[in-house]
């Protein structure tokens, strides 16, 4: 499997695979979109080593980030639109999930206070992107409320993931060790984000 992924990073198809993975992981959070982005960025670190000549078989770092960020926002919008138009049936499904209901309440409170930092933090938490996008749709938040924060979250996540892979590759070399260390850092950020998303619920009111 590692050989297949390594071969893919040297192909122009890496951009399409990354974009599709990021696009659909809002519905299937188990898709390894973050791992793919980091792996491709680690390979791109080879372009910054050696004589300064850019190899032909490594991803372009800026194009990779653009693909990941754009796909993230598009996936959020698709989930948001589907949830917004889902009707009573989807509302009942959301109501049966304590996690989605709680996230919807916190999202509404954050937007009411004029802030949407929850969008950005939740993008790093496991399944947080799905919960926030679906919650915004079922709560019938406007596109003007949703889209700017979704875009900021997508850019922040893509920049962080690409940066981890690229600078990890610069530090440790474009190797699987660098990829593993960067993936661990991504998971650590996800654990921290999950804690922050849950924290307001655990604090007493007032």
From TrEMBL:
Family per record: Belongs to the DedA family.
Name assigned to this protein: VTT domain-containing protein
Lineage, top ranks: Bacteria, Bacillati, Actinomycetota, Actinomycetes, Kitasatosporales
Transmembrane segments annotated in the record for this chain: 35-55, 61-83, 146-168, 174-197
Residue ranges of domain VTT in the record: 44-166
Naturally occurring in which organism (per UniProt): Streptomyces typhae
Compartment(s): Cell membrane
One Pfam short name: VTT_dom
Domain of life the protein comes from: Bacteria
Keyword annotations: Cell membrane, Membrane, Transmembrane, Transmembrane helix
Membrane protein topology class: Multi-pass membrane protein
Main subcellular localisation: membrane
Any Gene Ontology CC annotation: plasma membrane
